[in-house]
Design a protein that fits this description.
The longest helix has 21 residues. 47% of the residues lie in helices and 20% in strands. The chain is built from 9 helices and 7 strands. The protein has a 7-stranded mixed β-sheet with strand order 3-2-1-4-5-7-6, with helices on both faces. It is α/β, with parallel strands linked by helices. It has a single domain, classed as Rossmann fold. The N and C termini lie far apart (46 Å). The protein is globular. Strand 4, helix 6 and strand 5 form a beta-alpha-beta unit. The protein binds S-adenosylmethionine (SAM). The site of S-adenosylmethionine (SAM) has 21 residues, from helix 1 and helix 4.
Length: 245
Amino acid sequence: TSYGFRTVSDGEKQSMVNDVFHKVAKRYDIMNDVMSGGLHRVWKDAMIASLNPPKRPGFRFLDVAGGTGDIAFRIVEASGRQATGTVLDINGSMLGVGRERAEKKGLAANLDFVEANAEDLPFADASFDAYTIAFGIRNVPDIDKALREAFRVLRRGGRLLCLEFSEVEMPLLDKVYDAWSFHGIPRMGEAIAGDGEPYRYLVESIRKFPRQQDFAAMITRAGFSRVRWTNYTGGIAALHSAWKI
Ligand code: SAM
């Protein structure tokens, strides 16, 4: 099955995504380093610098599609271990790895882990100071719905930060990137996880994801204000920032 190249329903899309992350959960962190050449660490650090969580107690964040916890750990550390947060993911295998890592790092007291769908958040309105999502939104079948949920659970004055693969806006780099993502990544997937097909699907999902400006328009449509974005590494990734005011 070459499922990246035909039209699939939302339900099918979600179950393909779930398959990928169940299979890869234990090797996810290594795969990330291999496939991005370590760049994901730089982008994530830049995202946390932009969030700049306060170094005092009381700051509460929600990290959606939080997987193995990378973003949440960074936020807690950047706050001087004062912030508390919820790591939410649809995939119990990814969360399991995240929970173990949190314990090893001594951050378990600051975090809780919730298995749920970004399209349907199990939290009251105005529960969080910040909503973060890194390399997750493009996996969500109904992105508009997820953004409306983000808006709902943020308090007034709250911040949305979304890090995602985006459109490469640098000549030459786009060619190298295409070669790597269409050939290199599925082959690495095959070699490390034993199956290249799910990675072909993920690469395709990057291609289908709206470009910077169009994604900004979607965020605005969900109710957010002051929507901005910053490109990282020529637009391989972009950080979108917005406020609920
Ligand atoms: N944020 C982490 C990071 O940057 O390392 C993990 C990103 S990983 C590429 C994408 C995550 O999105 C996976 O853990 C997957 O289970 C999760 N995911 C996919 N669809 C989701 C949904 N509808 N709701 C919540 N999480 C979802």
